Amino acid sequence: MLQDDKQLQAGNMAARRRLKRVASSQPGFLTLKSSLHPTDLAGNRRKRVNKNKKKNWNKYSDINDVEEFLEDVRHQERTTGGLLSEKTDDNLFYVDLGQPEKPEQKAEDAQPDDGKKRKGKSSRPLRIDLILQRDSLVPPPKDILAYQQPNAKKLRRIAQKAEQLAAKGVVPRRQKRLLNRRPVDRTAKKAEANNNPDREYYDIWEQQPKVTADPWYLQQTGKKLVKRPEKLNEKPSVLPAVEVIAPGGSYNPDFFSHQALLQEAHEVEVQKKKQEDKLERQLAVNREDKATEETNLREQVEGLVEEEENNEEEAAPSMEDDEAALAAIAVTQKKTERQIKKERAEKIKEQQRLANRRQTEQQQQLFQLRSIKASIKKQDQKTKDKQMQRRAKQEAQKAQPRRLGKLKFQAPDLDVQLSDELAGSLRQLKPEGSILKDRFKSLQKRNLIEPRERAKFKRRLKVKYVEKRAFKEIT
């Protein structure tokens, strides 16, 4: 029995080897590679894997045949520009007619034979040119962005809608506007020659250029100029840009003119002095408000009064409360029917009396027409006078600086020289004032800029005083 089992096993092993040899001779047989698992090389049973799970697809799937096929397709596209199976026979084969005969060289063109044959290097391209040449016949990818049109879907929808309206005979709104447009006057005058003395005057320095285009066209295209408000043409002040100084301010003025200017400067100083005195009076402390010994004692004793005075003060209000309560009770008592009728009759009599009085006053006014007309005329005259005063006040305010900011305009000091400071000639005249400050104040006075004050310089870091070594040696 043991020998029979051994013979049977040897027969099975021989049959298995024969099947392996036959399978390896087939063209589709995959040989063993190093990429396989060592357990497969050892002949053990392969591990069973569940292919239903996605995580095992790439791990235990063999896609080498698919990759080889795709690589072959890419190789054909690079070398031939497409698949060989799709090409015609004319593109794949050609008829061999043998080598063409070379034309014989002329004796003149023949070069002397130096014993060495020179190869035609000039016809061979350079290696750098060969590197830069295209080695693939695959066309470049198509640029999709170059063929895309912005808002293509919207434009297509608008075109379809326009076709539908045109089929129905409906005219679009834009075309209707063009049809309703005013026709252009073709009989316009041609440009006249410059030597015509009767031509229309044209100022080239005019601020607003003449508009020769169609107004409807300018309005539709949005090129029509906006009309400038009339208020912007008004000056903010009626004062001149440069004010001439009074005659007394000359280098050699008249006596009376100089005295008048001194009087004006004196009035300005007096007004300033009055303002300062008024401010001092307002800030001064009144003598009656000052604390004395009596007021100090009264403040210390306050709150320490006897209780009897407080009790008397509390008793007085209680009596007043009782009287108020009795009056409220008397008012809340219900009125009798007789009292209600009496009050109603008195109310009717009062209304009749007022109506009769109003009627009597209206009848009396008929005899007062003259006096009423005189009073109306007087009131109208008074209104006109107020209007004139208001206009005069407005005109006077135009010459005064307005309040444009938080600061109020302060007029500059008058540049006045005393009688002993006057110079007899221009050579002895000393310059006074500043042109820059004068122009700055003029702009403020004419309401062109708001009044300003000089910015205060604030040092961030403290100044540190250090004595130098040389100075220390001296001291």
Q: How would you characterize the overall build of this protein?
A:
The chain has 475 residues and is mainly alpha-helical. Helices cover 49% and strands 0% of the residues. The protein is built from 16 helices and no strands. It has helices at 2-25, 38-41, 64-80, 89-92, 127-132, 144-147, 152-168, 173-179, 215-221, 255-283, 293-301, 307-332, 337-366, 369-398, 435-445, 469-474. The protein is extended. The chain starts with a helix and ends with a helix. The model is unreliable at 1-6 and 26-42 (pLDDT under 50).
Please describe the structure with a list of short key phrases separated by commas or semicolons.
extended, disordered N terminus, 49% helix, mainly alpha, 475 residues, 16 helices, single chain
Instruction: Determine Rg (CA atoms, Å).
Output: 60 Å
Pattern of helices and strands: HHHHHHHHHHHHHHHH
The major β-sheet equals: none
Number of E strands: 0
Shape assignment: extended
The number of helices is 16
Average pLDDT, all residues:
79
Poorly predicted parts: 1-6, 26-42
First-to-last CA distance: 135 Å
Amount of helix? 40-55%
| Helix-strand makeup class | mainly alpha
* Amount of beta strand: under 5%
